[in-house]
Write a structure and sequence with these properties.
6 strands, 6 helices, four-stranded antiparallel β-sheet, alpha+beta, two-stranded antiparallel sheet
Length: 169
């Protein structure tokens, strides 16, 4: 049996769940996803140091017994609201493939070797952090651009209403 095929099968039944509200507990997460199949593993990530130590990180991984169960859960739960936030549910393997294309042509195996040593979930948490930071930067840039446009629009209308020639000297 090819060891790589076992890894592929395992990753196809593993889901990344992101944008979790900090009030969602491990038990609540399992309860939300258990109707779709047998959950064989769950990794709920916590801050391990710093001022947020012990608080949830806002994402988790769930391993189903089959890839069909994982795909069903992904289809049904992606975009669903939980505590007012829209869940992001992807196959963990999709996340790896997207990141590996950014790693200058490295294969998935090489990308995993170059990061942290130890558990695979440690590598995923690092990758998820990077993706979250990129998304946050993009949102901030868009917000900044829209506020600049708003200020420019406000500035031109107020400049037109105040003309220096109307001021008596």
């Amino acid at each position: 049996m090819d060891p790589n095929s076992f890894i592929d099968e395992k990753s196809e039944s593993r889901l990344y769940i992101g944008n979790l509200d900090l009030r969602i507990t491990e038990a609540a997460l399992i309860k939300m996803f258990s109707p779709f199949g047998k959950i064989v593993a769950e990794d709920f990530l916590w801050h391990t140091r710093g001022p947020k130590r012990g608080e949830p990180r806002g994402f988790a991984f769930i391993q189903f017994s089959t890839k069909e169960e994982a795909k069903l859960a992904k289809e049904k739960m992606n975009g669903k609201l939980a505590c007012g936030r829209s869940l992001v549910v992807r196959l963990a393997s999709e996340k790896c493939l997207a990141e590996s294309s950014d790693n200058s042509g490295k294969t998935i195996g090489e990308g995993n070797k170059s990061g942290l040593t130890g558990s695979g979930s440690g590598q995923m948490s690092r990758s998820a952090k990077i993706a979250a930071i990129k998304n946050k930067l993009k949102a901030l840039e868009e917000e900044s651009q829209s506020s600049k446009k708003q200020k420019q629009a406000d500035g031109t209308s107020s400049a037109e209403s105040f003309k220096p020639s109307s001021v008596k000297r």
